[in-house]
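Q: A reviewer asked whether we had any structural model of the full assembly, not just the individual parts. We don't, so I'm hoping you can provide one. Inputs are below.
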Amino acid sequence: MATLTPTLTLVSTDVTSDELNFSVTDSLSVAAPSISVSTVVATATGSQTIIVPASTSIAYLYIRHTGTTDGSTGTVRQVDVENTDDEAFARLSSEEWLFIPFNHAEANVGVQLHVQHSSPSDVVLMEYAYWTKG
Amino acid sequence: MATTTAALTISSSDLVGDALSLSTSKELHKADTTIGLDQTSGLANTYLTATTNIDLFGAIIDTPAFEGKSHWVYIHNKSETPTEYATITIGDKVVGRLYAGDWMWMPWDHAQDTHGNNKHADIELAPSVATGMWFEYCMIHEGMQLSTAV
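A: Here is a predicted structure for the entire assembly that you could use as a starting point for your response.
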């Protein structure tokens, strides 16, 4: 099994009187299947952009909104992160990212991306990766 | 205006033939602006001794005033026992499981529903054991509904 090391750092000198500055690191044992850092064009139909296939396993999931439709053309369309039962649980704006250990109560579901606009021409280039807990 | 930055690195030397080294960061802004988030719950520690599903951050129910505002949530299971985990739920949807040492960072959105079955609601946490587990958590945001005193 391989080891994945994610680190989160949160820094602010002025959100409170006492400076916020901390890092947290984890050491994750991961196994197949995994998808290394990839890109996909998300659309207004969630089922067209399934980034984690249905599984009962825990998927360490990274998703980032690139802020573009194609790597160069900017967009402000938000993107919902949904399970494959079409239930949204997070919404990403331009250049925002998340990292979570996705699992839906051991139900056999995956994760999909859904652009928050009804026009099929509104698309967003998203970056993502996932690794299955070993 | 406060400036808060969240940064992520992910690395692995043995996952595939090519070493993985990812890094990204983002200043946290109020919704649809470039104004920094200026409110926070502060970094908190709590010790839970029951498997009861609890509200880490309560639902915003009574008013649309907070819908669509920007909230970011950090939760860390500080247990050192590998089998101990916490189930994380948003509204009625289980979204993740944090095993010992694991953490998560994600936006929490109170946006009004735009399609069926979406409930941007409370963030719940349920420990897997009642023998005591430590959790660290924090929210950085642009506004929360506080309960009226009784």
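A: Points you may want to mention in the reply: The first strand of chain B starts at residue 4 and ends at 12. Residues 111-119 of chain B have pLDDT under 50 and may be disordered.
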